[in-house]
Amino acid sequence: MKTAQGDPEAVPVHDAPEVVAGPDFEHSQTHVEKEKEAYNRAPPEVDHKSPLREEEDSNKEVSGPRQRRICGLSRRNFVIVLAVSLALLLAIVLGSVLGVELPPKNKDTQGSQPEYTGGSQPESTRESQPESTGGSQPSNGTTDSGPPVVRDGTGLAVTQPDGSATLYQYYQDAQGRIIENQYSDGEWLSYGSDVPAYAIVATDALGRSPLAATSWPSAQSGNVYRQLFYLDTANRVMMSQTTGSNLWSAALNVAPDDTAVTGSIALAVSSDTNRQGLNGIRVYYASAYTGYIQEVGTDFAGPNSGSWWTWASFPDTDEMSGVSTVIANSYNHLYVRNVSTKSLTRLTWNYFLEPDTSWQAGEPGLSVPLGSAIAAVNNGARTDYVFYQDETNELMRVVSQGGAMTDAVGLVALNPRSKLGATYDDSISAAVVYYQQAGDASIAYQGITEGGQKVVSGSVG
Questions:
Q1: CB-based contacts of 330: which residues, under 8 Å, 6+ apart?
Q2: Which of 85-99, 141-155, 259-273, 374-388 has the lowest mean pLDDT?
Q3: Domain boundaries, the chain
Q4: What's the whole-model pTM score?
């Protein structure tokens, strides 16, 4: 049971951080060497009456009177060869007269791949798609596959790798699968119900699981990783990853000693490769152990690399509402709902001052109802765009600079179960927020500038 403690303050977890097994970011899966079993076998006994020996014997000339041969063959063998030749000649003649054409080998299965339902596969079996070079801003263009079949109340997440023209958007479909959609060259690559294997992130997700996505370049391999975090059916915080258009990896539990609070919509992730700031990944979820927002993470280099650590806990944060995190230079801005003030609050961590730093709480923002989704994105400078749901289910946006949250703007009526995802589009100088509309499970988006001007809107697929 939590007690009111005023503004949230980060405290260590009950036990000292424990290093737990984490992913090797250069490999989607751990490769286990299998021991080879050496054995010797005695050579088999030769069966002098075996078919092979009998065949050899049959090819030998038998004793007795010499038989008459035709073209070097016995009369019997000559008759057999002649009959086969005549049959082949007749088939060729009939084929040319009737126009019969034999189908090519494997015509019906040429290029097919087995259905993939999870885990990793060898590189040779993975499907690939060309990298897009088109623009990044969504439009109403669609493919011939139709709009995505989206689950009501689906989690929503968006990521766009630095320098990439392709935007990746994630949702849960009606079958419970987590799907990766793409926007490139002015179109959404929506799949309808016919989803290719490389677009299926996970099949073990909790119904209406919150989703969180991030992407980062590997300094060692040069590959750009995309990672998707979700809750599985046991409320465990899971992560799957991929590069390019390869199949998604088997999921990893990043908080193996904990689970998420049942029914919570809180899940957020941030990553960066800044040697002077965050050089790793940070994940936030509602901990069933502490009863409030919990931080876990790993670094790309140094003593905290290669394993997932349990770090700060945030008392007085609402475990049933959303959470969001953005990286701005060397700062991490964490947006939560404070259960004491019932307001949107920003917590700040300065990586440049590590280890001599702590989480600092900013001024409480506007009132946020229990269970509100939260999504935030930074413009690459000092302005955060923060989206949330008000008491009337209207999508709201505020601007946060230096801790204070101002310039609230109402955007659109939301589906009461809607979750939120957001990204920043430099080409239009606007934050783009994704949501489910009121009275509809389809995914829509709006782009809004810092001054509150709506510059783009539409539907996904």
A1: 274, 276, 277, 278, 350, 351, 352
A2: 85-99
A3: 139-253
A4: 0.71
